[in-house]
Each structure stands twice: as C-alpha cells, then as structure tokens.
Amino acid sequence: MTKNKKIAVLCNYELLPERVGGMDYFFWQFDKKCKENGFEVDWFFPNTATHVNYPDLNIHSDATVNVETHFLNFCKQNEIVYSHIITHFLELCTPFFKTIKQWSKAVIIAVDHNPRPLNGYPVEKKIKKKIKGLLYSRYIDTFVGVSDYTAKELVKDFGSQIRNKTRVIHNGILLQDVLERKSRNETKPSFLTASHLRESKGIQDLIQAVFLLPKAIKEEIVIDIYGDGPYRKSLEDQVRSLSLENCFHFRGSSSHLKSIYCKYDYMLQPTHMECFSLSILESLAANVPVVTTNVGGNEEAIMNNGNGYIFKAKDIPALTTILAEIYLGIKKIDLNTRIDIEKRFSLAKMVEQHFLILTENPNPFRVLNSERVDNNNKIK
C-alpha cells in the first residue's frame, strides 16, 4: 500500500450531536480505514464537532463562508499536495471543480447524494445542467452515485460523456448498532416514520391517508413521527384540522433511532424524492418492514410484498388501502428483513468500496456509452 498519501474530503454536511446518522458513521469508519492504510485525511465541514468520534478527525471549518470557498482559502494559505479530493453533498460540475483541478494534480471524486424532484427538473434547469456538464465534468475523474437510480440520473443530468467514469456505491449502515425486532403483530401493528420534516418527505400524504381510513381503524391506529424540520408546524396544523391528534405523535429528533425501530412493526416513508434512504436500511436491519414510494433508489432496497410495500408517490388512496390491510392483518410480511441488509448494504462494504477508489486509476471504468449502470458498481 502506498504510504503518506494525503486526502481532502469536502462535505457540505452540518455536524450535529442531536442528529447522528449513517453518514456520520461512514465518515468515522472511512477516516479510520484511510489511516490504517497510510493515508492522511483533512476534513472540511461547515462546522467543527466534538461528539462521538469527531475528535479523531482532522477537521477544518469556517462558519463565515461555504465549504468550497473555505477549502480554496485553506489551500492558498497552506502548501499542501493532495493525492485525492473527495466531495460529498456539494453541487457538481461547477467552476469550483475546474479551479481545483487547474492547481492540483489530485484525483477528484464527486459523490452525489442529491434526490431529484418527482417530476424531474424544469426544462431550463435541465439545459443548464447539460451545459455545466459539457463545461466542467472533464475536471471530475470519478462520479459516484449512492444508488443505481442516482448514477443514471447523473448521466441524464450532465451528459453521456460522464458515463464511462460513473459508478455506484450503495449507502450502507452499521448493523451491530441496530436492535432487531423478534416478532410482529399481525393485526393492530405499530407504526413509525423517521425523516427530516420537509414537504418533499410526503408526511402530509400520510396524514391525509389516515384521515381516509374507516372510523374503527382511525380510532385506534397510532403513528409516531421522529424528526424535525421547517414543515413540522404545517404538519401539526394539518393533524389538528383533521382531528387526528390521537393518531399522530410528534416525537422530535432522536439520536437513538437504531434502538427505537425495533419497538415498531412497520416503518412508513411516503416520500416524494429520495436518493437512497439510510433510515429505510436501518428499519429493515431492525427487521421492521417498510411501506414507501416508488421514487429514487427505494425499489433497490424494498421488494414489494417481500420486505415491504411500494406505492406510487402522492397516491393517497393507495396508501390508505395498504395501511388498512396491514392494520387488519390482510397484508403481512413474514420475511426477516435484516438478512438481505446484512448481505448487500453493510457499512463495511460501503467503506471498502469508497476506499478502493483511492487505489485505482483516475478513470478505470472505460466501457461502451450504450451500456447501462448495473448492480456491480460500474457501467455495464
């Protein structure tokens, strides 16, 4: 293994002690893996942090500017040579990538975590993305999508010229921290949802779907909502306006979800847009099936009638039917949903695949443009 390589990882991801999720675990494990193999890592976040394992990371931050500007300022002030520059949660194919490629010989790896709108981007934005792809994609050596869906959307966004340097590395989770549910209630099951509370997560659809349930079910069903965000008040107002206060309990954000999932029978995720949900993976790892929509990478983790149920986004009557049939025991999942997650979506596998990029050539995925992204993490 090559020694004394230095990596910069840029993450537009706020570090919050009350919100410790799958990406935090990935950052810690990736940093450890790099150090064990002779790589030094400089991390660039919007803020510093002292919770859990963040003191072990070499973090640089500046709250007065964005991550890209801070990184450029840092590089101007310090004579540091990076072998690799990795970005997470940054806008792709911008002049920033041209700038860092011009002064650096580093391999640039851009990881895309961004979900797309349910009906796609407006025409004007599609054109702008294509232009940006033509101008700036050449300065990124490898594009990484966190799901097959994301990788395909990257090519659709920025053009076929990036197809041969786009790959898939699915998100993964730390399974040993997720407590497992041993059995499920076949009738009158318990439900939770866990997400950032914004309109695109579709919780308003869930509230409306419960309102449409038969009165007998509506008088008994309880759904706990974990998470916070700008849409919380609107959701609470909707619950009150429909007189569903007994059905929905807003539990706020929790850093202990991995020990909470197992207290429920089903997870509900009526989202309108998604890349590849870590909360869905964690719920399945807790042996808690998931009811979710056919957007993003959801169907890469959820097999309809196998480890959960899939319905079309915004199809409120369909969600009402699924809820009623689950609650009455007409629908039920017998599969242990944890087994598949252990095989396909572990954090160790995710870390290993991200680390392997560091040891490969900048552009090792040369294939025909007519081929597609598959589950083997490359264009095929």
Any overview of this molecule?
With 380 residues, the protein is α/β, with parallel strands linked by helices. Helix content is 33%, strand content 16%. It has 13 helices and 13 strands. Strands 3-2-1-4-5-6-7 form a seven-stranded parallel β-sheet. Strand 9, helix 8 (232-241) and strand 10 (248-252) form a beta-alpha-beta unit. The longest helix is centred in the N-terminal third of the chain and has 15 residues, at 22-36. The chain is globular and about 70 Å long. 42% of the residues are buried. Mean pLDDT is 92; it is low at 362-380.
Concise structural overview:
The chain has about 375 residues and is α/β, with parallel strands linked by helices. Helix content is about 35%, strand content about 15%.
Q: What would you call the shape?
A: globular
* Structural class estimated from helices and strands: alpha/beta
End-to-end distance? 28 Å
Q: How many strands, what sense, and barrel or not for the largest sheet?
A: 7 strands, parallel
What order do the helices and strands follow?
A: EHEEHEHEHEHEEHHEHEEHEHEHHH
Low-confidence stretches: 362-380
Share of β-strand residues: 15-25%
Query: Going across the major beta sheet, what is the strand order?
Result: 3-2-1-4-5-6-7
Helix content: 25-40%
Quickly count the helices. 13
Radius of gyration, taken over Cα atoms and rounded to an integer in Å: 22 Å
Whole-number mean pLDDT: 92
The tally of strands reads 13
Strand and helix map with partners:
Blueprint: E1 5-11, H1 22-36, E2 39-44, E3 58-60, H2 67-77, E4 84-88, H3 95-103, E5 107-112, H4 123-136, E6 142-145, H5 148-158, E7 166-168, E8 191-194, H6 203-211, H7 215-218, E9 223-226, H8 232-241, E10 248-252, E11 266-269, H9 278-285, E12 290-293, H10 298-301, E13 308-311, H11 316-327, H12 338-344, H13 347-358
Parallel strand pairs: 1-2, 1-4, 2-3, 4-5, 5-6, 6-7, 8-9, 8-11, 9-10, 11-12, 12-13
